[in-house]
Amino acid sequence: MRTRLRAVVVLFAALTAVASVVSTASASPSTPLLTNVRVGAHATYDRIVLDFTGPKPTIPFAQVVPELTYDGSGLPVNLPGTYFYQVVTWPGAAHDDNGDPTYTGPRKFTTPQLSNVQAFAITGDFEGQLTVGLGYRRATWQSVSVLENPTRVVIDIGV
Questions:
Q1: pTM: predicted TM-score of the whole model, two decimal places
Q2: d(Cα 7, Cα 132) in Å, to the nearest integer?
Q3: Is 87 within 8 Å of 130 (Cβ atoms)?
Q4: Contact, 61 vs 153, CB < 8 A?
């Protein structure tokens, strides 16, 4: 009886240790969390900066699209502009694990201080992916980069 009890205790301890290792190994790294959106006008480009806390996201996927739509629903985003630029940051989110917003500013706003970019919108924030869109007046070049210290995604649109 004692041998059997000892075997059960040893087996339980071994399974607990294995479960702990598996749990630690399968935990995903932290998701960069959006904390602020800034805009700035420059002589040859308009700049939109997405400030994040946490690790650096991978290089975002960005493309000119015929129209902006909300992720998930596919409904159109009503944003001023003749041209539209979509930037997907992964991993990325504008909310924490409890669903509380980490970015409390407007999810959609116009940018009258910029020369070409007319408006900004967060068009998706789920499953570890953050999507934003820009509406702008004139066809031109676009650039997206990820910087550290502090973590940020920088979107430049030529004027």
A1: 0.81
A2: 57
A3: no
A4: no
The pLDDT profile of the chain, 159 residues, written as one tens digit per residue, is: 544 444 433 333 433 333 333 333 322 458 999 999 999 999 999 999 999 999 999 889 999 999 999 999 999 999 999 999 999 999 999 999 999 999 999 999 999 999 999 999 999 999 999 999 999 999 999 999 999 999 999 999 999
Domain residue limits, the chain = 31-158
At position 69, the amino acid (one-letter code) is T
Class of domain 31-158: mainly beta
H/E element holding 6? helix 2-26
SS (H, E, C) 14-41: HHHHHHHHHHHHHCCCCCCEEEEEEEEE
Residue 146: closest CA among 130, 123, 126, 125: 130
